[in-house]
């Protein structure tokens, strides 16, 4: 199992510059060697600046020789319509996909406006028909994740930690405070990825980051601690606030 590679930056701006550069470089490499490249994006606030940076660093985009190979999925979605302020698709579309002119056929969004149970099944099917498998589990090339103050990632929350072991590709989850319904990739799908990148910023995350990266016993309660690729790369991109206690 992969040991995490930890990258710490003085500022969020430096972090997102580096990750934007890496995004083009690695995606370009994958395009050189594969017919299709499947990337799952994260939601929440933290990746917004990254998506804006990727869209603005057009000088690097030449590294990707054929964007029609690159397909975008989501690690999770809030059960809201696509134009809703809390839509993870809406945010990524606005700051990344539209600026990069990504074709609609390459955008595989979770339909947050649909009935959650039905959408979890439908999205599992969409992933099943587009993403190759390893051990009969979808094999994403790259999954971006965040970390909640409670140790959740994607929409796998501490009080629904069984979603780490669910047999399905996607499941319905419920945000423990807001009761907002969510659709999330399950743990088995996440840890099967070739590359997992956590992007975490801000002092409110420092305690959880410390517990998880120091593998403290308390961290076993946090879903993010269990997301370690079986056969892939695991990396954490942190600003100095989030890394303040490690
Ligand atoms: C979501 C995310 C979730 C997020 C964390 C961190 O839909 O909310 O996918 O897992 O990454 O909650 O959120 P922030 O980046 O907003 O702190």
Sequence stretches where pLDDT stays below 50 over 5 or more residues: none
> Helix content range of the residues, please?
25-40%
Structural class by secondary-structure content: alpha/beta
- Give the neighbour order of strands across the main sheet: 1-11-10-7-2-3
- Total beta strand runs: 11
The number of helical segments is: 6
Bound molecules: 6-phosphogluconic acid
- Which outline best applies? globular
Mean pLDDT: 96
Characterization of the model:
Helix content is 28%, strand content 20%. The protein starts with a strand and ends in a 7-residue tail after the last strand. It has six helices and eleven strands. The strands form three sheets. Strands 1-11-10-7-2-3 form a six-stranded parallel beta sheet, with helices on one face. Helix 6 (206-213) links the parallel strand 10 and strand 11. Helix 1 (12-33) packs across helix 2 (47-56) and helix 2 (47-56) packs parallel to helix 3 (88-97). Residues 42-46, 75-76, 78, 88, 146-148, 152-155 line the site of 6-phosphogluconic acid. The site of 6-phosphogluconic acid has 16 residues, from strand 4.
């Amino acid at each position: 199992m992969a040991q995490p590679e930890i990258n710490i930056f003085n500022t969020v701006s430096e972090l997102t510059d580096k990750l934007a550069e890496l995004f083009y470089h690695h995606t370009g490499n994958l395009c050189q060697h594969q017919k299709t490249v499947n990337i799952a994006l994260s939601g929440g606030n933290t990746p917004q600046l990254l998506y804006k940076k990727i869209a603005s660093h057009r000088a690097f985009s030449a590294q990707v020789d054929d964007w029609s190979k690159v397909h975008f999925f989501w690690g999770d979605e809030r059960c809201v319509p696509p134009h809703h302020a809390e839509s993870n698709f809406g945010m990524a579309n606005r700051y990344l996909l539209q600026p990069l002119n990504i074709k609609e056929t390459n955008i595989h969004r979770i339909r947050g406006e649909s009935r959650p149970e039905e959408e979890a099944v439908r999205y599992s099917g969409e992933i099943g028909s587009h993403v190759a498998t390893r051990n009969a589990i979808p094999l994403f090339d790259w999954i971006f994740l965040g970390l909640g103050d409670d140790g959740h990632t994607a929409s796998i929350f501490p009080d629904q930690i069984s979603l780490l072991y669910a047999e399905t590709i996607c499941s319905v989850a419920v945000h423990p405070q807001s009761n907002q319904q969510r659709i999330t990739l399950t743990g088995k799908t996440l840890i099967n990825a070739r590359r997992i990148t956590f992007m975490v910023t801000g002092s409110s995350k420092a305690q959880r980051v410390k517990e998880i990266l120091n593998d403290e016993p308390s961290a076993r309660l946090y879903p993010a601690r269990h997301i370690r690729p079986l056969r892939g790369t695991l990396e954490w991109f942190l600003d100095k606030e989030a890394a303040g206690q490690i």
